[in-house]
Amino acid sequence: MIRLTHFCERTVRWLLLAAVLVLTAFHTIRAFDHSRDEYEGAMIPVTERERGGLPGPDWLAKLPYTVTPYGPGFFALAGAASVGPWDKTLIPGRLVSVAAAVLAAAVIAWVVGRRTASAECGLTAGALYLGYPIIAYWFHDYRVDALACFFAIAAYAAPDLPRRGLLASALLVVAGSVVKQTIALAAVPVFLHLLLIGRRRDALLYLGGVAVLGALVWGALFYLSHGYYFDLGLWGNRRAYILHKALGSAGNFAENPATVAAAVALIAAFVANSKPICTNRYVIALVIGLGFAGLLSGGEGSANNYFLESAGLVCIVLGLYGVSALWRLDRGRTAIVLWTAGFSVVVAVSANTVMYVRAGGKAPDLAIVKSQAATDYVLADRQFIGPAIWAGLTPAVNDPFFYGVVVKNRAVDVGLLVEDMKAGRVSALVLAKPLEQYTPAGNEWPAEIVDVMRSHYAPAGRADVGYLYLYYISE
Fold first, then answer.
1. Is residue 178 situated within a structural domain?
2. Which residue from 98, 348, 377, 388 has the fewest beta carbons nearer than 10 Å?
3. How many beta carbons lie within 10 A of that of residue 357, not counting itself?
4. Contact 329, 118 (CB under 8 A)
5. CB count, 10 Å around CB of 268?
6. Is 3 left (phi over 0), alpha (psi -120 to 50) or beta?
7. CA of 466: how far to CAs of 353, 370, 430, in Å?
């Protein structure tokens, strides 16, 4: 047998680094294509308004109505990046997401590399994360998910630090909750891990610290926003639960090859020695996290982005128990070299494809609406929020779906927007389908809004700017 050990050690790191760089480069380039709005435009008004301070009652009391269920963490970073020609585009938020995903990959590589004493295993796990389909699909978008996932992964890894690891983990959990509230659940696996290894005092101090610090931070946000974050992030964010949707998302995640490989590696390691598996913090986090993700992905309007954190944990587990086992074998090392070379080529080819499998092509130019509308306020379906902003228009509502959720839960007074529309302050509708197809029972807009659409707006015909329909306020 030809021994390739020395060749592996000299080349595999460079091949893995090349794969990581190719993935990062493709998605960074994708971030600069701000003409393609993947339903991300709803985030821009929140970022713009939060640059002037935290939300308050005025966000819901008059035009424009700006709603979001998330804390200010992501929007603060996106706002800081919104400088020069990037202002009011998708670029700042997308760059924050790409940076967060790369940092999460670095944390994963550090965890696996440190625990296996192999930089190659660590880099393989990091590259797997960036190439994981669900990660590649979501991590370059102007959304909170990639940043929230980074905080969760970092919170799981922080206890491995030589000093004050639990304190760092608690701080990361609370900081992550300010990005996306469900990241607070990352404290549960860390707490259970401490209990299982007999550190009961540390477990109670950790959980108590997260609870107290979280209560202080969120209490301050509730107070400073005059209840906005409570009304929209908690009380008004109650949604219908769709079981088959949750099962479908869980099934799609489970059938991914990396998920299957991690399960096989875990079973093999468990058969060999079960105790280290049962007390491994990352295995505990993966099992519990999958349960949380399965539950949360069934909410109305939710998607499989709740499995981003689980994808990162799958890569850690696969690195610890799968890749490391192969790396200890000469043939395994050879296989990893060949896999890495193939992975680099596949990534280079497929990353470009991933960029264009998303919904829609180039965003429509709504300059025609700007030139013909009586006011700058328009009511636009979610996919046209970004194009409306780039045309110099102001969306009356930044997120139609979530606006409908909070109206249904009576956290927002829909009558205010109804009066604005009847008074002609909202001069145009930018819709994805003919108005006749919108029904009061539908989930695009609240029933009260659909009624005013039909009674106060007249069609302008189908504009030659993409698949959209324009309606102007009747004289």
1. yes
2. 348
3. 9
4. no
5. 12
6. beta
7. 22, 16, 11
